[in-house]
Design brief:
The structure holds 2 protein chains of 2 kinds. By secondary structure, chain A is mainly beta. Chain A contains no helices and 11 strands. Chain A is globular and about 40 Å long. Chain B is 0% helix and 52% strand. The chains are: A mainly beta, B mainly beta. Chains A and B meet through strand 4, strand 5 and strand 9 of A and strand 4, strand 5 and strand 10 of B.
Amino acid sequence: GAVVSQHPSWVICKSGTSVKIECRSLDFQATTMFWYRQFPKQSLMLMATSNEGSKATYEQGVEKDKFLINHASLTLSTLTVTSAHPEDSSFYICSAPGQVIAGGTDTQYFGPGTRLTVL
Amino acid sequence: RKEVEQDPGPFNVPEGATVAFNCTYSNSASQSFFWYRQDCRKEPKLLMSVYSSGNEDGRFTAQLNRASQYISLLIRDSKLSDSATYLCVVNGGGGADGLTFGKGTHLIIQP
């Protein structure tokens, strides 16, 4: 099946620094990728939709200047958390849509996630 | 506003028992429905899609009631390895939309 990778798996950084997370589709092309965030004991929340060759679409309440998204190629989207603070500590997961499967429904392939801890 | 609601549990169930989860969704325009499984500190993994006619995959059975905007998951003959958080997931339409996740139902299978 399709595979999505994320790098790094985890990162610990000091408050005020910027952290870049990469999401790659390994054996398929993805014109669209999604970035989610999950706080402990909470559901995954969609942050933004990354569009290859154009600007990302951000969900309400997500600061586009803080969470910079770049989808420069059909296999790579990056999320940069700028000037990270402790409240940005979370589990960040990307996904890419898969092909339509039996029954006409579609699914998404998730990366393994990146656990960010900001001290 | 898109919402998917689930009972967070935890459900403590003895091994071999049958357990069922439900979820409701608020967006009547939703087109695709899924159950995902998420293990602690891991990414969610697709368990099964949910079709209007109901569908079964081994010990797992999913049902969808569009009129009531209600989705269910039944697990028969539960195994210790079924312990996880089960996420009810809805897609508004097509691959261009991100998924809307419920908070998940935590299942603990006890030996």
